[in-house]
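Quick start: read one record
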Amino acid sequence: MRQRMKYHEQENILEIDFSNLYLESNQQIDAIKEAVQEIAEPLEHKVFALVNYKNFKVKDEIKGYYSQVIKEMYRRYSRGTVRYSTNSLTKTLIISAMRGEKTSSETFSNREDALEEIKRLQERERTKTGRD
């Protein structure tokens, strides 16, 4: 799963490409968690996540575990997570998975719009903290 992730240090964005991924086992979900930990743990600060969910699917029997793991990763590593996908079933999965979290479950239709949202989140954060 590590090859599906790239950290952009200058922008503080962890880009995750779940396009065309079908999760069929808890072991795959654990591999995602381990890959995120491998990148995020050494940073000692939270990151913005940009996630491509195009054609992403999760086997029904493991959706609960997937939701649990992404909530845990969100709480531990994320300053904000922005997603993009054109699949309405994926959007529904994300809304369900992130229910109760203080994050937007909005899913953008393309990478460019999602990146613009991250820029807005970063700007809002800079304004709150008074940093440039």
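The domain at 2-120 is CATH 3.30.750.24 (Transcription Regulator spoIIAA).
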